[in-house]
Amino acid sequence: MSIRESELILNPDGSVYHLNLRPENIATDIIFVGDQDRVNKISKHFDTIEFTTQKREFKTTTGTYKNKRFSVISTGIGPDNIDIVLNELDALVNIDLETRKPKEHLTSLNIVRIGTSGSLQDDIPVDSFVIGSHGLDLNGLLHSYQVHEISNPEVENAFVKHTNWSEKKAYPILISNSKELEKILKSDQTFQGITATAGGFYGPQGRVLRLALQDNNLNHKIDTFKFKEYRITNLEMETSAIYGLSKLLGHNACSINAIIANRANGMFSKNPGNVVAELIEYTLEKLVE
Questions:
Q1: I want to staple 111 with a disulfide (CB 3.0 to 4.6 A). Which of 124, 136, 203, 253 is the partner?
Q2: What's this model's pTM, rounded to 2 decimal places?
Q3: Number of structural domains the chain divides into
Q4: 16 within a domain of the structure (yes/no)
Q5: What CATH number does the domain containing 125 carry?
Q6: How far apart are the C-alpha atoms of 25 and 94, rounded to whole Å?
Q7: Beta strands 68-74 and 58-65: pairing type?
């Protein structure tokens, strides 16, 4: 049965609705960034650029770096945007846009997120790199999908017990990264741990301006969570959605973050632009080795 026009929306030129992309416009190796301005900071290293487009916050540039084809895509902020980007990317490679039917032979994308984040642990310093071994969904997006086969109830239940997680919130879901991509990206320069993914920047991440929090001690509970080899290293707004949707759709994903703040000791990077530039070069070199 064909997917209805209201469910898979295409633009008049046949491109997918939000990303403004056609299948030939993207590589199978994709780099995600949140900030649209960061797309150029990556693509300036490319040897060739074949295509670029932008619609709303979604900017895409496709080109080659050391003979390897990449697409760099800005997702904007938050798990809701990731839901758009990953579903539309999957449609580009795994749905025939003419017949509106899933393809018989599916394509797996390799997706690496280059992001910025705040460390939750005193021993992970500002200006370091952190690979998310797992994404911890604290925002509830993944509950819209059937995730029971890719989650980790043992760790999730331990986290709920440790934090006295409110029953009024979505139950946390833990999703692993692609171990193949992690192996490519990790080195003596990187730390690893769970990347928690919040649904907002202020209250959901424990920041107080004028609004009181549901749980004033939640950040400390998150910081101090330990279960077997698991601990939570950093907190941001995209990783669990990337990991969960990638696993469900058959893609490989790994998130690596430049640590520009340390929430444990209150420090902030003296030059966050430098550490992001260093992470971009580090990641590109790792991906072409």
A1: 253
A2: 0.96
A3: 1
A4: no
A5: 3.40.50.1580
A6: 14
A7: antiparallel
